[in-house]
Amino acid sequence: MSSPHLQTYNERAQRHANKAARALLRVMEEKQSNLSVSVDVTKSKDFFDIIEAVGPHVCLIKTHIDILEDFDPTVIDRLRELSEKHKFLIFEDRKFADIVPWHCSIQKGSTRSQDWAHITNAHAVPGPSIITGLASVGIPKDRGLILLAEMSSKGALTTGSYTEDAVRMARARRDFVIGFIAQHRMEGIGASDTDNIAGEDFLVLAPGVGLDATGDAMGQQYRTPEQVVFESGCDVIIVGRGIYGKGENVDTREVLKQAQRYQAAGWEAYKKRVQRT
Ligand code: S5P
């Protein structure tokens, strides 16, 4: 079987072991979108203005729900309604990183993200027990976990043997770990001769994507959708400020225009990738 990145999202949806991954892959194919918008704004009005504008064009909305200054539980209700209305999944970028397993599974605060986010993520730094802890609350709800294997910021320590260990941890829990925040494909990385890696399919969600900038003043590094999806074989492009700028008093027409631009660029890079076989 060819490497996952040479198969269509639909083909992969039919085989994936995890329900959230299957749903995401199906939505990507259906909406012709591998775009995830990262809605990193502090006011719920801006948050929802952006989501209403980009909703029809994304496969996944990525949230940092704790940065909303005016958060209240109705935010979650509305987010879920929009997820159904526009058919996108929700990814709470919670970056769990604490010790195990009980601490992780109760570290949910007032928002209880396992109740509404189809996908969340964790750092590999605590070791495999972080997966065990999150799986104990995530598996019963058909959730999927993303491990941070390679970060996009300048000087990130997520390289070499750290990345390999993160992939090994994921390999041992393919029922729950559906992929990585990374910059390249990860299948087979860190595998020994005795590991069964046949059929391994990790979704690679890549932040650090921009069409107009190569970085910001805080160490973020941007690559284009063509570099990320076609050259590096990543599956989902995560875009934040490239779509809504500062994210204050957003101009929804401009947000829509940028979302369409990134959607088209990401999809074109994917089509080029799967057609080269
Ligand atoms: O390595 C990473 C991992 C993540 S999840 N680099 C990242 O930039 N992110 C997140 O992606 C980051 O927290 C932010 O929410 C988003 C990128 O936003 P942008 O405005 O730079 O596109």
From TrEMBL:
Keywords: Decarboxylase, Lyase, Pyrimidine biosynthesis. Transmembrane segments: none annotated. It is an enzyme of class 4 (lyase). InterPro entries: Aldolase_TIM (IPR013785), OMPdecase (IPR014732), OMPdeCOase_dom (IPR001754), RibuloseP-bd_barrel (IPR011060). Its EC number is 4.1.1.23. Gene3D superfamilies: Aldolase class I (3.20.20.70). The keyword Nucleotidyltransferase does not apply. Substrate binds at residues 40, 62, 152, 220, 240-241. The active site is at residues 93, 95, 98. Pathway: Pyrimidine metabolism; UMP biosynthesis via de novo pathway; UMP from orotate: step 2/2. GO terms for biological process: 'de novo' pyrimidine nucleobase biosynthetic process; 'de novo' UMP biosynthetic process. It comes from the Eukaryota. Pfam families: OMPdecase. Residues 34-255 form the Orotidine 5'-phosphate decarboxylase domain. GO terms for molecular function: orotate phosphoribosyltransferase activity; orotidine-5'-phosphate decarboxylase activity. Belongs to the OMP decarboxylase family. This is Orotidine 5'-phosphate decarboxylase.
